[in-house]
Amino acid sequence: MHSPGIHGVSILPCLPCIYQDLTNSVLRTLTIKGAQIAWVSTQGPTRGSASVKLDSGSAKTINTHTSSPKTAEIVDVVSGAAGAHTLVVKVLGTSGHPRVDIDAFLVLGIAG
């Protein structure tokens, strides 16, 4: 969905999506058109880590574990050339705090 009044930004809500105990399971695979994708998540003491990979690039680990809860935080931004991309997010099943939330993705740099 495109955000009214904001040119070049699309918000992909997840309503929210909560994942836990799914070690190495794909949470979300998105195919989008844009130049950057920001992952919005809730962080906190019960949250863990996930890997994020854009297209055929290397996966990186994103840790959403914090000592106190934080809502609607941008926890990662990945960038590529303007155009079509595939983003894959996988939960890593962090011991003691395996939960990973995906609240939304913001897609930036959309033409039109």
Jot down its keywords.
112 residues, mainly beta, Jelly Rolls
Folded structure, characterized:
The protein has strands at residues 9-19, 26-43, 49-54, 60-63, 70-91, 100-108. By secondary structure, it is mainly beta. The protein has one domain (9-108): Galactose-binding domain-like (Jelly Rolls, Sandwich). Strands 1-6-2-5-3-4 form a six-stranded antiparallel beta sheet, with no helix packed on it. The chain starts with 8 loop residues before the first strand and ends with a strand. Mean pLDDT is 81; it is low at 1-7.
Summarize the structure.
Helix content is 0%, strand content 62%. It contains no helices and six strands.
What is the name of the CATH topology? Jelly Rolls
- Which secondary-structure class do the elements indicate? mainly beta
Strand content: over 45%
What CATH first level would be assigned? Answer: Mainly Beta
User: Gap between N and C termini, in Å?
Assistant: 13 Å
The level of helicity is: under 10%
Main sheet: strands, sense, barrel: 6 strands, antiparallel
**Unreliable runs:** 1-7
Question: How do the helices and strands follow one another from N- to C-terminus?
Answer: EEEEEE
Domain tally:
1
- Record the strand order, biggest sheet: 1-6-2-5-3-4
Number of helices: 0
Q: What is the 3D shape?
A: globular
CATH level-4 homologous superfamily:
Galactose-binding domain-like
Using only C-alpha atoms, the radius of gyration works out to 14 Å
Using the 3D structure, state the CATH architecture: Sandwich
Mean pLDDT level = 81
